[in-house]
Amino acid sequence: MSEQYEVLAIRYGTRESSAAEVFLNYHAYHEPDRPLRMDYFFWVARNAARTVVVDTGFSPAGGAARDGPPLASDAVHYYEELERDRPFATVANRPDLYAAFDQISELAQAPGTRVVAGHDPLVAERFGRSGPVIQLSA
Questions:
Q1: What is the mean pLDDT of residues 59-76?
Q2: Residues pairing with 44 in the sheet
Q3: Higher pLDDT, 7 or 36
Q4: Neighbours of 6 (CB within 10 A)
Q5: Beta bridge partners of 18
Q6: What is the pTM of this model?
Q7: Is 49 exposed, middle or buried (0-12, 13-18, 19+ CB in 10 A)?
Q8: Of 5-9, 51-55, 64-68, 110-114, where does mean pLDDT reach its minimum?
Q9: Residue 57 burial by CB count (10 A; 0-12/13-18/19+): exposed, middle or buried?
């Protein structure tokens, strides 16, 4: 039997940046630079029995629960990385990066599943919420 959790994203910081600073080889897209905000989140999964704080920090995420939204953390900072095939500027191993993209895309194919990008301000918009606390689960 699976335990059900309410999942929250808690924004604890924001940094102003630019697309050229954030995306690898942005000049190759031949688009003008633009401002790009980076939000910093940690996640809380809670139910009547327990509360779990998920802070993936700078290490790779250990996986995603099948009954909840995939928390992409630092594998996908912005939705644009997956949707427009634009890797983040700091890439240690490009094949591993694309393998993570493929895994996250596969997880997102499950009915009713939405990916939670690790630092994208669009998380609030895509989940229909605003403010520093975003409820990710129904």
A1: 51
A2: 8, 53
A3: 36
A4: 15
A5: 35
A6: 0.61
A7: exposed
A8: 64-68
A9: exposed
